[in-house]
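Render this sequence as a predicted structure.
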Amino acid sequence: MKKIFLLLTAGALMLSSCKEEPMLTLSQAGANPTAAGEVLTVDVTTNCEWKATCSDNTITIDPASGTGNATVSITVPENPVSAPKTYQVVFTGTNETGMVSANYDINQLSADASVSTVFPDVDLKGYAATFTVKLTATNDWTANITNGATVEPASGTYGEYDLTVSIPENSTNAAVSHVLSIALAGDSASEETTLEQPAISTLDYAGVTYKVKWLADGRLWMVENLRYVPEGKTPSTDLTAIDNGVWFPVDSVNKVLSDNEELIKKQGYLYNMEAAFGLKPGTITAETYATYEGTQGICPEGWHIPTVKEYVDLFGKSVHKDFKNESAPFYDSETQYGSIAKANEAGWNVNWFGYINVATKTATKGTIINIIGYLMGSSAYTTEMGAKNLNDDGTLKNAQYFSAMASTNKTAGPNLSAAYSAYRSGMAVRCVKNK
């Protein structure tokens, strides 16, 4: 019995020593497919079970495993990037005696370098604008835009992107060029697009187009008088229509209020301050009249009725002793007033405005003043003369005055200054853009 056992053991050892070591070879060590993508074929020669894997799941392997020899198809997708791509497929064979492996290296060619942008139909008018640009790039890219504009995102990898381009307001009276540049990594491709932003010259408001201009004080001004009719109001030729507060302009030849369309276009309507501030009659009181400085009123959104300082920064001259600016662009040191000639050279388009004087709080009728034209302001007149219009208890006397009226005085000369006027009087309105 012992002899038989020894024979069986010896036979088992002989069989074990005859098992083959694992073997696996590939017909090719790798390939260089085009950027368009390809299906590659490789023959596997092996004496064992095998499998093929790739760390990039965009690579398709068919079959991905088997026993013995096989022909394997490897599908490489398109390379849209203008840089080569590398993959490695690892074949591993195993049997009872061990494991063997072989690598199949794929070095895919790059796509042609390209970058392209698609712009929306944007009509730049000089005001700030934000819009989306479609970008397609074949590699890592960076974006840049000039003259204070911004682009987000400013960089990325290959693919398609929505770029948000923001153009700031053109604060000059000349066109501004914004150059959007897109560059691929390694300067392999680039694209530049120039956006011409015109100067702001007009403002569309309530169906009317007004001329506007940047002046030397750094602000954007209307250079035409407002001809906006507030809701619920009708322009009147009646000098007693004080609560209505909106009148047709004064015809300087006939010294009457006129509904002539050409005159309205030239001079605008005349408003009292409650109508211009968007208030109901009787709203302005001793307690409220100092609270309306810089109010929007009937101006467009983002604009307001000028303050005394904004007028003084143009004309230099004011009846307010605490406001003076001899460096103002329209100031004339010889006359010590603002100069109409300088203002018109700068494009401010000063014309005769006309004025309806309603000097007292109890007046039932206004009087046409033919030698002075006022532009409305929103600052309360509170110094000296303004104080004289207050009772001892702080309430207002007959008149409630506001300052920042630019006046043209035909008898004293063609001058401009920040003056004052009773709040129920009718005067022209120009708006200035908020900063």
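Summary. The chain has three domains: 20-108, 115-197, 202-433. The CA atoms of residues 104 and 135 lie 36 Å apart.
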